[in-house]
Amino acid sequence: xxxxxxxxxxxxxxxxxxxxxxxxxxxxxxxxxxxxxxxxxxxxxxxxxxxxxxxxxxxxxxxxxxxxxxxxxxxxxxxxxxxxxxxxxxxxxxxxxxxxxxxxxxxxxxxxxxxxxxxxxxxxxxxxxxxxxxxxxxxxxxxxxxxxxxxxxxxxxxxxxxxxxxxxxxxxxxxxxxxxxxxxxxxxxxxxxxxxxxxxxxxxxxxxxxxxxxxxxxxxxxxxxxxxxxxxxxxxxxxxxxxxxxxxxxxxxxxxxxxxxxxxxxxxxxxxxxxxxxxxxxxxxxxxxxxxxxxxxxxxxxxxxxxxxxxxxxxxxxxxxxxxxxxxxxxxxxxxxxxxx
Length: 341
Ligand SMILES: NC(=O)c1ccc[n+]([C@@H]2O[C@H](COP(=O)([O-])OP(=O)(O)OC[C@H]3O[C@@H](n4cnc5c(N)ncnc54)[C@H](O)[C@@H]3O)[C@@H](O)[C@H]2O)c1
Hints:
This protein is an alpha/beta fold and 341 residues long. The protein has 12 helices and 12 strands.
């Protein structure tokens, strides 16, 4: 992209990947300002951004990506040069219980953002997911040309958003790049997702619920590597292109759970097998060679090291996930920002 970047609008920046991305951008691009727009759903947690509260280059705004007026106001007031869209309903299990909000936020919300990006003529990076490809057999990897066969309302809503974003490129000439990444792990992940859930349960000596036979295979990538990928897509991605990110760490869920138990010095007796999730994809594996080649991107965090660092983080930040589990984190906004409206 040709336009120099000074200000980026990150959506969903109070979530897991968004928060880690905002930190990476502030660190790696010291002359950028970040406007962080997040609705603070149950998954958004301002306590994850506490260290950025007084950073003059980071401005948090509570709001919905589907609010066109607000988005337009933020883009014009701050002279936003690019939008990184991470805001989403992101939990597959929740999409099975209630798909409606997934369509509202992930599809309709993204479309509103795209319209505003178009109006302002700014680059738009849609952070999509490898789940758009559906499930793989025992061999092979997803490339950017693999058919899109999402299995859950979550992945179907992400697929719709991904394709609408690409359609804005073809139809309106909007400068759009799409990224599709595999499963992330790392600090500040909401403890409903596999790795933080298992760590937190083990630390509380609770059972570790494993779906079905635990043989569902995922490709795990450290969140910092994904964040570096998003930055590379923003700066080096070709307009209209899709880039896969993955780390070649394919492991069955049960293997991950056992590794975590080892790192926490706990026994396998904590594992409890529970009924499988409907439509549970068996295997994902990502071919990220295009991103390696065209974006000069490569994952930097070896899996064993990343997993062990992640366990340490949840051990050392017990207060963070305990407040998430108890729901107390939801008061943080009112306590700290309430007076400012
Ligand atoms: N977690 C993964 O492994 C993974 C992998 C690939 C892609 N992704 C994608 O990356 C993005 C971030 O995922 P995550 O794991 O950090 O999710 P997350 O659930 O932790 O965070 C999502 C954030 O979006 C915010 N949000 C939800 N609806 C909103 C709305 N209408 N307006 C503004 N903000 C809203 C939430 O408050 C939350 O802070 C998602 O788009 C997801 O599909 C995630």
